[in-house]
Amino acid sequence: MFSPAARKPHLASTKNRSLGHGVPDSPATPLPEGHRSVLGAAIPNRPITGTPAPWSSRLSVLARIPAEKKTEKGGDANQTQPVYVGEFPQVVRNAQANLLQKSSSACDNTVLAGGMDKGTSLSWIICGRQIFIWSYLSAAVSKKCVALEIPSAFGDKDDMKSMPGNHWMVCVVGWGIASSSSEIMLGQCSSAGIVLCNQKTQAIVYWPDVFSDSENIPIASFPTPEAIESDLTSDGRKATKWNHGSNWVGSDNLSEHVRVNSIIVTAIPGNYRECVAIACQSNGDLWLFHFTLAGIYWRRISHDAVGISSGHSHMNKGHARSLIWHSQHACPEESGRQFFLLTDCEIQCWNITLTPDINVTRLWTHEIVADDGDLGIRKDLAGQKHIWLLDMQVDGRAKEFTILVATLCKDRVSSSSYMQYSLLTMQYKFGQNFSLESSGSTNERVLEKKAPLQVIIPKARVEDEEFLFSMRLRVGGKPSGSAIILSGDGTATVTNYWRRSTRLYQFDLPWDAGKVLDASVFPSSEDNEEGAWVVLTEKAGVWAIPEKAVLLGGVEPPERSLSRKGSSNEGVVEEERRSQAFGGNVDPRRPSSEAWIAGDRQRVAFMGIAKRTAQDEEAEALLGHLFHEFILSGEVEGALGKLRKKGAFEKEGEINVFARMSKSIVDTLAKHWTTTRGAEFVASAVVSSLLLDKQQKHKKYLQFIAFSKCHDELSSRQRHSLLAIMEHGEKLSGMMQLRELQNSHSQNRSNVVDSLSSHSQIQTAGSSLWNLIQLVGEKARRNTVLLMDRDNAEVFYSRVSDIEEMFSCLSHQLHYMIGGEQLFSIQMQRACEISSACTTLIHAALRYRDEHKNWYPSPEGLTPWNCQPVVRSGLWSIASFIMQLLKEAVAVDLSMKSKLWSELEEVSDVLLEAYTGIITAKIECGEEHKGLVEEYRIRRDELLSSLYELAKRFVDAKYQDSCKGIDDPGLKEVIFREVTLSILSIAKRHEGYQTLWHICYDLSDTGLLRSLMHDSVGPKGGFSSFVFKQLIKSCQYAKLLRLGEEFQDELAIFLKEHKDLLWLHEIFLNQFSSASETLHALALSISDGSSLLIDEELELAQLKRVPSLADRRRILNLSKIAAMAGKNVGFEMKVRRIEADLQILKLQEEILGRLTDTKEGLDTKKPLPPGELIEMCLRGGLELSLKAFEVFAWTSSSFRISNRSLLEECWKNAADQDDWAALCQASTTEGWSDEIVLESLRNTLLFKASNRCYGPGAETYDGGFEEVLPLQKEDMGFPNFKEASSSVEGLLMQHKDFPDAGKLMLTAILMGKEGNDAVVEEDVAMDSQ
């Protein structure tokens, strides 16, 4: 493909052709009668059949498609060839024919000009005195085309030589394009201005809006030499005078060597139909033009803005090369924009302020051709004679600068000269940020090389400057990082760095298609991706270059020129042809001239190219043959074994040959469908007929895989493949129902349009479903450029397997399809139409699934197509839009609201079913699904809540209409039940408990509530648990407990978190022991567990009152009664434990009552731990010291053992509470009698503590103190108690007063053990001492 095809003899010299034999692979298409008479006179002896002339009404696509692929243009067709996109509009063809008739010279000598604008997707051609403008996105021949007359004041209308077409430059300015991305998607640029500039005469013409009948009148101007003087310097800060010219002036006063090299235009924000243009002349002058409805104003920004040195000539045509805007996305400021100027040695960045005043300022300059190679290109290297910077482009992010460079070199060996073409990629240095304030720093390095110089052609023919300066560069197409180079003689070459080498692909059509006028990029269906390259030809319409064509059809750079003149090495041509004949699979002829290390442009993997093995091809061919034989004869004998041998069952999923065959059946494009019928196409019987044919063939295919036993093999080994096959049938069934729905809408709309008179009414009757079909079809055409010559509707109804794209468009373009600026009634009607289409399609697919359920594989772990994220996203988009619409539309007819509400019900049901399907699949596969479940719950609750609120409004409205002023509650209840029946069903299936509760509550229907509680059993208690929570929230405890009569187990499980109510339910169930345990735990509960509760449970817990200590004692008494009523085994021990806890709570009240300072920060309503109570007693002085032994007495034996050290501290504290030294001294000095001594000892704390712990009437729980701390040494019966401090006596012996008062201390504890009336013998006391 790289080399131009062999030039065919001109059509005028085809006299020797045989009329009976056409060119091989050229379709025999008769020329329409309307064109034979026109062209027949100009081209004598033209054959009646053969390839149509490029200017005929239709250019055959088959001339570019191999014979084996002519019958099918699906996704698997050969994409190594250019793809025909669309014909010229008929008015353009007529103008070309008229121009051919009027011209006395041959057709090839007639010069045409044309171009393409990427921003608006508009293409234009200048033919004679007319400029034709249309969108290159639409495949329909009947596309809208605007024809503009170039004002006759430019010269004699019949003089073709005075205004050659290739001297015109056209700029398109879109008015508010970004506001409607869908219009760009459909090629509908509704408003655009055109600026026309002649390169030689510098004449300017401005059409404010070519699509408006009132604003397409041209405004023309011509800058005269007398009016161009200006004192504006290159920094742009000095005020200048605007010049205005309305009279035309000839070009005699302008130098023939000075021409306009480039012009760019941008709109002025906020100013109606105003824009500015920047133009550069080859002599270095920059011009600023201001276009308004009143006229055109201009001024020179700078004379010699690029600084011509003495070594340069003012006649240098390439001194100021090209202009390009900085991306608007990178410079979002509406008050101004930046643009770049490429000169013969540098890049300049300028800023233009658009509001409030127009001002131009140069920001920075970066030299490219310099002695320092780091700046860009190093000059004065050995062998270099001259360097030309030909053109420059900036990527969409304004991060990368791509510059086309030509270098004249000299071979040292042969002393011959040759040209070398290269691409230089520059990028901003890290951290660079220039503004108007820093515009003086022009000497600072701004850019840096992103990658080494990429050599496109290392050695090429030496060309003259006229040819070099005709080259243009375009970037931004697929493959990512590729660029296309356009030459003045009409060739287009795509260069791409792939697989560590530079590959070239030259676009060149056969059959004399004329020159390539311009190239652009299709707007991508995804904002973050590039589109395919699109090419505008001189005579053959618009063509696209698929990504695969560049990747597989590209060749290694040859030693030849980019022009049509041929190569210095003709042998390369044959090698290139051989390389492309094998689809680009031949290795490059030699390594790249320069290794490109930069990784941004090199694709790690190209997902679009999935190389299929020979085994795959053979298996698919065999399957097709066997299926064809089955259709003819019904025989399948031996099919399974043959397919097994070919490996037909080795691959899983959609790449399996069985799934691919199924996909090809449902995605087949019909041969007899045309692209010229537009909306009539969908209403025709052709669509239904082809869809029915596909369905019958797919049914036959299912029979084939069943009779051949392949179904069993697929069901057991390739479940995903079998699911894909069955889903193709689902989608086909859904598509057929969708087509019937569309036909019904079209019929109804035609009746509506017939009854409407005004144009605006007809427009509002437009079909939102038709817009959706157009969007989906257009997106498929963008993604598969082989479909570019097909109509959007045809693509939509043919690509059945890609029906998910319909929901993708809903997610991104719903506002456009419904029309947010329309009246609410119109929006509702369109929303109903879209919603009905979605539900109709999915319901038809689900019916197919139910009817063919025995054909499906086991569903475990499989995700149906209707559960995929793209489908759910589309359904949620339409559902959320309808909800918002119903909230805002107040003054809309009730019937319309009711219809939309019904559609919302259907969409909600389908969407929620999709969520349950995907969640089930993820659970079966063991995949993470928490986030998905949460999303499902949020959207479910929002949908059901909205449906129920709207339902209540409809009930009230219907009731008002029915009751006629008479109150009838029974009638309202009947209406309510009728309206909410469907909502009740959805909520019941999807656990919409809040909605179920509201319905039952509003109806006051306990019977319905109990029935739903029985039926809706789900996780965490199901609907029953939800009802219990609602009753607790509303403090309806009696109703809650009454429900426990019917739902005993459910309520028992629920009340485990609500023990204050659980014991009541347990008593009702005669579970007294369990009730006692519950009450006991409730009375002693220290924490409510708030930190462990979820928000809803925490809210319930906060509603309850915290019981006081007195309440807790009452609860313990209830627990005691329940334990005694239960009389289970061991209930006596349980009663003793309850009594002990009662004593501890009573002691806590007494202790807290005596404390004053230490109660701050304590929660006096909660029971404190025994250890904490004892420590409080130790700090409380004499009054509380004895209470510590009381607390110990009512604790368990295990507590006393584990806290023995604390018990020892209590005894030490008790000994310190009395002054034993003073007591001993007083008894001696005063001569106390025994009675007085004993009486004094009875008042000591040691006596009282000993009596409480070891006395005859001491009460304790779970054992006594002797087991933990004996009173005397001789009481120690265990070896581990032989230590000195292992008894109370041993502890006292360590007291500081024991040497003097030890006898009294031991007497006191022994008296306490014996009792208050005991008399201790002196000898015993002394022996103990």
From TrEMBL:
<comment type="similarity">
    <text>Belongs to the nucleoporin Nup133 family.</text>
</comment>
<feature type="domain" description="Nucleoporin Nup133/Nup155-like N-terminal">
    <location>
        <begin position="87"/>
        <end position="543"/>
    </location>
</feature>
<keyword id="KW-0653">Protein transport</keyword>
<keyword id="KW-0813">Transport</keyword>
<dbReference type="GO" id="GO:0000972">
    <property type="term" value="P:transcription-dependent tethering of RNA polymerase II gene DNA at nuclear periphery"/>
</dbReference>
<dbReference type="Pfam" id="PF03177">
    <property type="entry name" value="Nucleoporin_C"/>
</dbReference>
<feature type="region of interest" description="Disordered">
    <location>
        <begin position="557"/>
        <end position="593"/>
    </location>
</feature>
<feature type="domain" description="Nucleoporin Nup133/Nup155-like C-terminal">
    <location>
        <begin position="1023"/>
        <end position="1165"/>
    </location>
</feature>
<dbReference type="InterPro" id="IPR007187">
    <property type="entry name" value="Nucleoporin_Nup133/Nup155_C"/>
</dbReference>
<dbReference type="GO" id="GO:0016973">
    <property type="term" value="P:poly(A)+ mRNA export from nucleus"/>
</dbReference>
<dbReference type="GO" id="GO:0017056">
    <property type="term" value="F:structural constituent of nuclear pore"/>
</dbReference>
<dbReference type="InterPro" id="IPR037624">
    <property type="entry name" value="Nup133-like"/>
</dbReference>
<keyword id="KW-0811">Translocation</keyword>
<dbReference type="Pfam" id="PF08801">
    <property type="entry name" value="Nucleoporin_N"/>
</dbReference>
<keyword id="KW-0539">Nucleus</keyword>
<protein>
    <submittedName>
        <fullName>Nuclear pore complex protein NUP133 isoform X3</fullName>
    </submittedName>
</protein>
<dbReference type="InterPro" id="IPR014908">
    <property type="entry name" value="Nucleoporin_Nup133/Nup155_N"/>
</dbReference>
<dbReference type="InterPro" id="IPR015943">
    <property type="entry name" value="WD40/YVTN_repeat-like_dom_sf"/>
</dbReference>
<dbReference type="GO" id="GO:0031080">
    <property type="term" value="C:nuclear pore outer ring"/>
</dbReference>
<dbReference type="GO" id="GO:0006606">
    <property type="term" value="P:protein import into nucleus"/>
</dbReference>
<keyword id="KW-0509">mRNA transport</keyword>
<feature type="region of interest" description="Disordered">
    <location>
        <begin position="1"/>
        <end position="37"/>
    </location>
</feature>
